[in-house]
Amino acid sequence: MPLTGNTSLIFFIGGILHRLFLFITIASLFFLASCGEARKIDELKKTVVSLEHELDSLQQENKKREENQLTNLQVVHDSVQAGEGLFQVLNRMGINDEQRRKIVLSIQDSVELSILKVGQRFYAAKDSAQNVRIFRYEANPATIHLLFLNPETSLFEYKLVSKPLVKKQSVFEGVLESGSTLNGLLFQVGIPGRMVGIVSGVLQCKVAFQHAQPGDRFRILLEESFYQDSIWISGKVLYAEFEGRVVGHHEAFRYEDPDPKSTFNAHYTASGEALIFDGLRYPLDRLHITSSFGSRIHPITGSRTMHNGVDYGSPRGAPVYAVAEGTVIKSGFDQYSGNKIAIRHRDNSTSWYLHLDKRSVSVGTRVAPRQVIGRVGSTGRSTGPHLHFGFTNAKGKWINPLTKTMIATPKLEGARLARLQVQVEEIKKELALTEAQEPQKANDSLDVNVRMRVLP
Ligand SMILES: [Zn+2]
């Protein structure tokens, strides 16, 4: 649907300014249009005036070229509906095949296009020839991905806009009452379900909750990011503690490697024991999913295909690990899978590793969990280095590998263990600072207190 209101605003500033400035301004206008806040548009107009001065010398040389290019853009937008991928959304926005291909190729390294959520919005500003000049994807209200068409190269240039977020820590503290469960209490005080799941998931590795008693204590430390103070963007559980008369005292700490996508980022005891029930090992050290399991519509071609595994984007040569103990039942090459390895596990399930650059095990080899079996490559039918990881159950049926629990290691060692110990001390300091705040009742009817602290 066209938004003609934007066109006149873009016209107001469009003809006179340097291209870079235009990019920033139009990007901001896009954002404001979605908020519809007149006050902010006024503030922006003031910014426009001051920037005009700063860019006075630059604008002369670019004036002529830009004048006729960005003054007449029409904005269209649409959002993801249930069961859809990017292909359907771009189609509805009237974006042609050639531009769709360019948009997908320009944005796919920065955005996990296979896991779009219902309601996420896309905007495109088209010129009079119906070419997309600016493309905007709002992953969440604070994270905006922009593409600008460079008229000289006819290629899109990518820019990430991250809105400032407010970080808050909260400590929730309480006791179990007769008939209450930890899970139930955490839901009732309004903690997002994903974080409740993490708290109970890590604690139940140590706490036999069927033996929890009324009067048993719990304490958790959350760190959450908000946009404009109240829109929840993300959160993590830094610490969880349970102290029970029968089940004893247990603590869980969040550990992080420098790489936010590291497979080692998880919850551990203070001594480095992973808090997860006998999971598989991850097949890589870093997880960047470029294509998920299941039936999907290709974002460029629109054809429907069944993808019977998960694709992880990875640099060529990264080590590929066996996800569990087993015996190699295939190690070979074919034109579709490239270099391929299959490992049969004790329960007769089989893990599959495709497109490898190098294979380092042969049929019949016994492998241990996390043993290196090959290197990431792009052999067979593949457009770039990645690992296609598949999993078949004992009956030979393909299942979604992401439904399997995976861990990098059952116990941190060496440099990672030392790093965990530093982080444990930091978390204890953060906990003490947040605990020093005034307590409030988390919920009128429950005996749960919350203390909150806005991080500097
Ligand atoms: Zn694949």
How would you sum up this structure in a few lines?
25% of the residues lie in helices and 34% in strands. With 456 residues, it is α+β, with helices and mostly antiparallel strands. The strands form 6 sheets. Strands 12, 15, 17, 18, 19, 21, 23 and 24 form an 8-stranded antiparallel sheet that branches.
Which characteristics define this entry?
456 residues; alpha+beta; Nuclear Transport Factor 2, Chain: A; Glucose Permease (Domain IIA); 3 domains; flat; disordered N terminus; binds zinc ion
The number of helical runs is 9
Report the helical percentage: 25-40%
Based on CA atoms alone, the radius of gyration comes out at 26 Å
> What is the CATH class of the largest domain?
Alpha Beta
Assign the CATH architecture of the largest domain.
Roll
Low-pLDDT ranges: 1-27, 29-35
How much beta, percentage-wise? 25-35%
Distance between the termini: 42 Å
Task: Name the hetero compounds present.
Answer: zinc ion
The largest sheet, given as strand count, sense and whether it forms a barrel, is:
8 strands, antiparallel
Class derived from helix and strand content: alpha+beta
The averaged pLDDT comes out at: 85
Q: Rough shape?
A: flat
